[in-house]
Amino acid sequence: MTTNTPAASRSTRREFLKSAGTVGAVALTIGFEWAGATRRAFGGPVAAAAGAAFAPNAFLRIGSDNSVTVIAKHVELGQGAYTGIATVLAEELDADWTQVRVESAPADAARYANLAFGKIQGTGGSSAMANSWMQLREAGGRARVMLLTAAAKQWKVPVTELTVAQGTVYHAGSKRQAKFGALAATAATLPVPETVTLKDPKDFKLIGHHTPRVDASAKSDGTAQFTLDVMLPGMLVALLKRPPLFGATVKSFDATAASAVPGVVKVVEVPRGVAVVAKSFWAAKQGRDALQIVWDDSKAEKRSSAAIMDEYRRLADQPALSARKEGDAAKAIQGAARKLSASYEFPYLAHAPMEPLDAVVKLSANSCEIWAGDQFQTIDQANAAHTAGLDPQQVSIHTLYAGGSFGRRANPGSDYIVEAVSIAKAFGADGTPIKLQWTREDDLHGGLYRPMYFHKLEAGLNAEGQLTGWRHVIVGQSIVADTAFAALIKDGVDGTSVEGAANIAYAIPNIAVDLSTTKTGVPVLWWRVVGSSHTAFAVETFIDEAAHAAGQDPFTFRRKLLDQHPRMKAVLELAADKAGWSTPLPPGKGRGIAVAEAFKSFVAQVAEVSVGKDGQIKVDRVVCAVDCGTPINPDIIAAQMEGGIGFGLGAVLYGAITLKDGRIEQDNFNGYRVLRMNEMPKVEVHIVPSTEAPTGVGEPGVAPLGPAVANAIFAATGKRIHVLPFSSAGAA
Amino acid sequence: MSTSFSLNGKSTTLDADPNMPLLWAVREVAGLPGTKFGCGMALCGACTVHLDGKAVRSCVTPLSTVAGRKVTTIEGLASKPAKAVQAAWVKLQVPQCGYCQSGQIMSATALLESNSAPTDADIDSAMSGNICRCATYTRIRAAIHAAADAIKV
Question: Which one of A123, A248, A254, A513 has the fewest beta carbons within 10 angstroms of its own beta carbon?
């Protein structure tokens, strides 16, 4: 049993919206509409919108027009959260998928907290489905019981004689049927059941099937609304000139030339720099270009990234904090028949989402309204309130589609939101809507990068080729230090720095993983798959070196060490099998394998590369196996693996943010190269069937890609890569 | 200062700085937000529109240069190849974050309007100027082939 084809759903939804408009029901599309281009009904009680006949909980509204509105507490930034959330709730509700639309929740930790984060509403750590799985199933299941009870009451028949499918309740005996909309008013008068029996997974009709994305149509005809597209009456556009060095501040500025640009309304100083507020982007841009600013860089970071890496290299030989210690790794390696060592260097990386950061703020004396592709709603709400001098409940947030994030919008300091609020405040807090727009240069210069890291690994093998000791030292900045997420630091060790390394799954009797946490003036942040964006590379290429040193096949060497980790072993075997691991490749080609656990999902990939006459590497094919528990939407899982592979490949081939005397050397996509169409490999995704609780898919696909490709390059060329990106070593 | 041109088939006169990039003119002056800003330097393709039927980067195209010419944005797509491209995008579930997809669709449509049966190499050459950070490239390629098949019949 599957659902409609996406095309059918598209036309049906359009027809529906047309009719919804005529009956005066809630005419909200999957996307966002502003009634009279001012605002929509965020912030108020969830059931307050017109036509909402039945709103049994914070996640669902059923209209008398049969519309099923699912309220999403997570942002949709490409990962498919809206579709996944709606699928899970609609499954237990037995809703008609063509009538389901998604609306973003207001910022409210009481109702919309991410259950994986505690009392914070936010999206991250590939947790959207994992944390809402039971919450949304129960929400849908309870509502279904209430609709059935309403039908039983209306028809005066026992509820046990009723069935429900695709938004309609049936009574076979009397041949009666009613759509949800006709039952909504009665259902709204009934008590919410305390317990509910959830479906047996074998009865799932949406979960595990091809349920089309709720946002595909709007994202294919230009109507999906991003923050860039917010246009409010009287709205102005601001561009902010930030210091060229991290930690510098404004000493003085001359706004004469900027103010003379036609369309510039005001030039204001804010804590992060000087903002030009204008009637259009173009005027603001020209005004900003004309600004004269003298910076105070006495406290700024003035080092080059090469100098910082030199320091990290030295620190790797100094005492560090232990993240994992089993047995005596140093002694085991010392006494080993064969010793190996390697070091790895990872650069700063920018997220570079396609939509440069932007936020619209409408600030007045006692309220602050924010439009953004907001990823940390209640953190951003608190930071905005603090900046504005308001209470958090005076700040409302309209979460819009985000044009990518990869971690960038999940910022504990809410940098771009705080900037926008501070500009609106300096402008006069007079209720004028102001859109802060970052440019691509602002994005690449603006910090909050994936930290730079240095890794040092040593291993020992016995005469039988078995690993006896493993020592791993990681040097780099903490992502969560001095943020609301500092609780992730245990005994001085930031878990996000060592994940993927400290929890290495291979059975090795002596393991030591140490962390040396550094401080620099360069602000850092999590970047897609966080710690595993570097740890998986180090672990999975070094284990490959160990396999070759032991004279063993890299796949079978790994598999033998994974008996205690059956799910990891299973994805490794599946990827190897589907890739034809044991079949030979022609000369000039190589195959590499890697496996990783990230955010409780397991991913293995086999990469095939070919080496051109000029030594250029081309990744031809990647075979991916993923175990993410119950697959909620197999097509979105595949899409996230495909995307993770392309995102990861661009980073390992070319990605690097570097500093020269404190200045960022990359300005735009010419200096910060990312993957393009002609470089995208063929991708095959295989999903492990599972009834385990669902886990994330947005990030884990990135983790094994780099090492799989590096191991394939070794297989093809005999060269190991220890410095990223590959292009810096002439390997790409 | 005003510039007159055909915008999505309608004669349009925009009163704006003639040096203003076409991107901002169609977005902020004409009120058509489907065309996106990604880099401002013709490096990412998010702002792709058609100028006299050819794909151009509107972020580096001064408004003055389109005077008397035909501009089509995502909002004005109407050709058979364009509709086939958009249908294939939905059918193959191409978009993730979706921000670059207007530009991708404009480039793909321009390709199919000049070459109704593109090879993979043709697709590489026509589409490599359009960045997708979600890396939906495999589906974009498949959707272009699917759209080409659809307009054949």
Answer: A254
Q: Sign (positive/negative) of CA torsion B98, A227, A390, A412?
A: positive
What H or E segment, with its residue span, contains residue A570?
helix A566-579
ipTM above 0.85, yes or no: yes
pLDDT score of B63 more than 90: yes
Best CA proximity match to A523, nearest among A723, A323, A678, A301: A301
Half-sphere exposure (CA, 13 Å, Cβ side) for A295? 18
Identity of the residue in B98, B105, B139 whose CB atom sits nearest the CB atom of A215: B98
Q: A281 and B105: CB-CB below 8 Å?
A: no
Radius of gyration of chain B (CA): 15
- Cβ of A401 and B33 within 8 Å? no
**What does the pLDDT read at residue A9?**
33
**Span B76-94, mean pLDDT?**
98
Chain A window 578-597: which residues touch B at a Cβ cutoff of 8 Å?
Answer: none
- Determine, for residues A677 and B21 on separate chains, whether the beta-carbon distance falls below 8 Å: no
The pLDDT of residue B1 is 86
Q: Does A233 touch chain B (CB under 8 A)?
A: no
A401–B35: do the CB atoms touch at under 8 Å?
no
Cβ-based contacts of A229 with chain B (< 8 Å): 33
Q: Do B93 and A635 touch (CB under 8 A)?
A: yes
Which two three-digit tokens encode residue A356?
A: 């440069």
CA-derived radius of gyration, chain A: 27
- Alpha-carbon distance of A92 to A89, in angstroms, equals 6
Name the one residue in this structure whose structure tokens are 């009834």.
A691
Where is A493: in which H helix or E strand? Answer: strand A493-494
CB-CB neighbors (< 8 A) of A356 in chain B? 37-38
Residues of chain A with pLDDT under 70: 1-52, 730-732
Are A50 and A63 a contacting pair, CB within 8 Å?
no
Q: Is the link from the previous residue into A201 a cis peptide, with omega within 30 of 0? A: no
- The angle at the Cα of A388, spanning A424 to A526, to the nearest 5 degrees, equals 90
What phi, psi does B6 have (nearest 5°)?
-95, 120
Q: What is the pLDDT of residue A699?
A: 98
Query: What confidence tens digit (pLDDT) does each residue in A626-648 have?
Result: 999 999 999 999 999 999 999 99
How confident is the model at residue A731, as a pLDDT?
61
Check CB contact of A39 with chain B, cutoff 8 Å: no
What global pTM score does this model have?
0.94
Average pLDDT over residues B64-88: 98
**Token representation of residue A59:** 């996640």
For residue A728, the model assigns a pLDDT of: 87
If you count them, how many residues does chain B have? 153
What is the arithmetic mean of pLDDT over B95-118? 98
Put simply, whether B84 touches A (Cβ < 8 Å) is: no
SS (H, E, C) chain B: CEEEEEECCEEEEEECCCCCEHHHHHHHHCCCCCCCCCCCCCCCCCCEEEECCEEEEHHHCEHHHHCCCEEECHHHCCCHHHHHHHHHHHHCCCCCCCCCHHHHHHHHHHHHHHCCCCCHHHHHHHHCCCCCCCCCHHHHHHHHHHHHHHHHC
> Could you tell me which chain A residue has the CA closest to the CA of B46?
A354
Helix (H/G/I), strand (E/B), else coil: A175 = coil
Q: How confident is the model at residue B153 (pLDDT cuts 50, 70, 90)?
A: confident
**Alpha carbon of residue A190 to chain centroid:** 39
Rounded Cα gap, residues B89 and B140, in angstroms: 7
d(CA A240, CA A144): 50
Return the closest-CA partner of residue A379 out of A485, A236, A481, A494. Answer: A485
Beta bridge partners of A349: A450
* CA-based nearest residue in chain A for residue B75: A222
